[in-house]
Amino acid sequence: MDYRILGQLEVIDAGTRIDLGYRQQRELLALFLLERNHVVSTDRILEVLWPENPAGKERTLWVYISRLRSILEPGREARTRSHVLVTCEHGYSLAIEPVDIDAGRFERLVHAGGSLVEVDPQRASALLRDGLALWRGSVLEGFEYEDFSQAEGARLEELRLVALEDQIDADIRSMRHREMLGNLEKLTREHPHRERLVALQMIALYRSGRQADALRAFAHYRRLLGEEFGIEPSPDLRRVEEQVLAHDVRLSTGPRAPDANGPEPRLQPGAKCARRDAFSSVSWPRWHHQ
Predict the structure, then answer these.
(1) Could you tell me if 97 and 104 are in contact, meaning their C-beta atoms sit under 8 angstroms apart?
(2) Less Cβ around it within 10 Å: N or C end of the chain?
(3) What is the pTM of this model?
(4) In DSSP terms, which residues pair with 3 in a beta bridge?
(5) Side-chain half-sphere of 51: how many Cα atoms within 13 Å?
(6) What tens digit of pLDDT does each residue of 88-142 get?
(7) Rounded Cα–Cα distance for residues 53 and 121 (Å)
(8) What distance, in Å, lies between the first and last C-alpha atoms of the chain?
(9) What CA–CA distance (Å, rounded) separates 74 from 220?
């Protein structure tokens, strides 16, 4: 089974999209997928599905559980133990591997690609693009405003932005800075407070022979911060401005070639991405994701 939550909820079996039933049954599966491999208590399930009146709904919940087990394990014999939607003390758990769900595959690609941005940017870009291609819309589209999906949805959306930043960073390192300008213009408008996007935009503009536009991007961001928050850009971004003003040769230096003799760096599944500097040839501290 292939579970998909990076967009509308879908379950694919051998290339065929499975009918998941009515909305409440789909909502139940969505909850299990967000809490995969963890026990979800019966009390919490009742509160999610029937927030205003959960009392007396245990029988209906059992019917939903039974139907989902039949959908997710079509070959399982009746009245035999489920190995996917497992009954636990006081609740249930959906037991699946990270590779079985698009969000799990996305995270692995992001961590692998992010770890390669500085040493093999072309490979990093390919991995990150593969991960971003898994997105079909907002997380659990149709349930994205439900309370139970808010925290995980926000986390995945943030990781998506990190992946976009890393992919653009890798492409700039690979001398594809002109190709990135349109996307950076769009992203900085959609996310005007993300400083790393501004840094990448400045570097891409400078590399494209547009020093004045790079400085205007910085001035716009500085004015925005001042008007909305009364603060200044970080020392890191101000250092990029100084390098643009000084025509620092490091801004135009190509990416460092990967070490052919060394192993590809890997991050363990579940590890957090670290926000790297906007470009390895720029002498400024690393950016760290919060």
Answers:
(1) yes
(2) C
(3) 0.83
(4) 11, 101
(5) 5
(6) 888 999 999 999 999 999 999 999 999 999 999 999 999 999 999 999 999 999 9
(7) 53
(8) 34
(9) 57
> Is the pLDDT score of 286 beyond 60?
no
- The two structure tokens encoding residue 198: 């501004």
Structure tokens at 40: 């979800």
CB 202 within 8 A of CB 172: no
Question: Which domains does the chain show, CATH number per domain?
Answer: 2-96 (1.10.10.10), 102-252 (1.25.40.10)
Give the number of C-alpha atoms closer than 13 A to the C-alpha of residue 143, restricted to the C-beta side: 27
Compute the distance between CA of residue 254 and CA of residue 25 in angstroms, rounded to an integer.
53
Nearest to 111 by CA among 124, 99, 102: 124
Closest listed residue to residue 128, CA positions, set 106, 96, 149: 106
Question: How many CA within 13 A on the CB side of residue 155?
Answer: 13
Handedness of CA 106, 107, 111, 112 (dihedral sign): negative
